[in-house]
Write a structure and sequence with these properties.
With 478 residues, the protein is of the alpha+beta class. 52% of the residues lie in helices and 10% in strands. Helix 4 crosses helix 11.
């Protein structure tokens, strides 16, 4: 492959500059392709108004809380020993809870720029603060680069410097660098819910209370009719009214309107469900008619969304760690930031480690530090053996029971077990001799193995184990 062919393969040819379907009157600025924002002709600030809705705001807190409840830490990975402690010391001076919450704004709006304020601490250049900035202050150009709209350039914006803005995004693509905002899916359901609630309240005021009908003689003056109307209005509030003796009052209930009320209720419940699906991925745990099984299934779906959000947080902090390493160290390997659910990890590892320990495996303190996040000093290091062999107190004593068993085994004829073993393995030796190569022998072995006669050997070993068990029980009782 020559140089021209290599350059052709390395370059992008399907770009906006060459696409016949891409037209932008703004030149450098790429408009947000969100269909909701395009339909209503507004910017992303309209989504911020949705958070005043109790259901939307509550679901956002629940979604963020699921991620912030996770444990987090920094491990060395492939980096040198002690690299994780450097990053943890840097993170200890940051408001991690607030920063994680601001990173989690990205799933709501599609993207969330966070400005990194760098400072010099000792001989290191480290982030002294990370601040989430309003996403509507920023835009992307035709090359998908982040730009800040300023007073000097409010349309195209200024290109932001490298290693200055962290940019977590949800499902961002080349076609849509702004990402996919979950609040976009909540806009219409929340708007319809507000409108439906308004009509439902009006409906309840109109048909929820009984109708009070006053009757006057035909030629009653208008002044007296208005006076009776006011008294009836007071009667609705106080249930007490004084009317002339030649007037009458009828109270009638609004019948046959329950089906109309159900229409508004079904509309509101549908809108609630859509918001729950958009923000939580399920609707079972938020509805009164959900049972235990469906609620548990709903939590499992939410866990998938929580894990996706936590991976976004991990990617953002790992980008920050890469910048810290670029400024301060000449090493390609870096520590890694990760999040996990402590209860689940401990349960799985503990059960596995218990099984390994019972099987005779010895686990080192270094393993426990790596697997469970223990720090130096948390575990007691085992004493290293000295040069002299270890002697136990009972090492020099006599064990007559064991001596008797050893004597019984030694009394067996040397050729007894040997003859049984040879008889069992004779067909196997013959098979290998008759085979042309290794592959043929291996194939025949698979068919011969179930047919090997091990009866005599098994009986001899069974008798020996039986005698040993009886001997141990008898001497144990004594």
């Amino acid at each position: 492959m020559n140089k021209a062919q290599m350059e052709s393969l390395a370059a992008q040819i399907a770009t906006r500059a060459r696409s016949a379907q891409f037209f932008s009157d703004l030149g450098l600025m790429l408009p947000n392709p969100d269909p909701v924002l395009k339909a209503i002709g507004k910017d992303i600030t309209v989504y911020r108004e949705l958070r005043s809705d109790p259901q939307v705001g509550g679901n956002i807190r629940r979604r963020k809380g699921a991620v912030k409840a996770l444990e987090w830490g920094v491990n060395n990975g492939q980096a040198k020993e002690g690299a994780a402690q450097i990053v943890e010391a840097i993170f200890a001076d940051l408001e991690m809870d607030r920063i994680i919450s601001e990173i989690l704004e990205a799933p709501l709006y599609g993207y969330q720029p966070l400005e990194v304020v760098w400072g010099k601490v000792g001989s290191y250049i480290v982030p002294v603060d990370i601040i989430g900035k309003p996403p509507e202050w920023f835009c992307f150009d035709a090359e998908n680069r982040l730009r800040l709209r300023t007073k000097e350039d409010p349309v195209y914006g200024e290109l932001v410097p490298d290693r200055k803005f962290l940019l977590p995004r949800q499902d961002a693509t080349y076609d849509n660098p702004y990402g996919m905002p979950d609040l976009s899916m909540c806009f219409w359901p929340t708007s319809f819910k507000k409108g439906g609630l308004k009509f439902w309240v009006t409906f309840a005021e109109k048909y929820g209370s009984p109708w009070v009908i006053g009757k006057h003689p035909r030629n009653t003056p208008t002044e007296e009719t208005d006076d009776l109307l006011e008294k009836l209005a007071d009667m609705v509030q106080d249930a007490v009214a004084v009317i002339p003796d030649d007037s009458s009052v009828d109270i009638k209930e609004a019948a046959g309107k329950s089906s109309s009320a159900d229409v508004y209720e079904r509309l509101l419940m549908f809108c609630r469900s859509e918001v729950n699906y958009a923000l939580l991925g399920q609707n079972q745990t938020s509805e009164a008619n959900s049972n235990r099984a469906s609620a548990q299934a709903g939590l499992e779906v939410t866990r998938d969304i929580r894990d996706a959000d936590s991976r976004m947080v991990e990617a953002t902090f790992n980008t920050l760690i890469r910048w810290i390493w670029d400024f301060n160290f000449n090493e390609s390997t870096r520590p890694e930031f990760s999040m996990w659910e402590q209860e689940e990890v401990d349960k799985v590892l503990a059960e596995r480690d218990k099984t390994l320990t019972e099987a005779g495996v010895t686990l080192t303190p270094a393993y426990f530090k790596r697997a469970y996040g223990f720090q130096d000093g948390d575990l007691v290091e085992p004493a290293k053996p000295s040069g002299a062999p270890v002697e136990f107190a009972e090492g020099g004593g006599d064990f007559p029971d064991q001596a008797a068993l050893d004597a019984a085994i030694s009394s067996l004829a040397d050729n007894h077990l040997q003859g049984q073993g040879q008889a069992m393995l004779k067909p196997l030796v013959q098979l290998i001799n008759d085979s042309a190569d290794y592959a043929e022998a291996l194939g025949k072995l698979a068919t011969l193995f179930p047919k090997l006669d091990t009866t005599s050997l098994e009986e001899a070993l069974t008798r020996a184990m039986f005698v040993a068990e009886l001997w141990g029980q008898a001497n144990g009782d004594d």
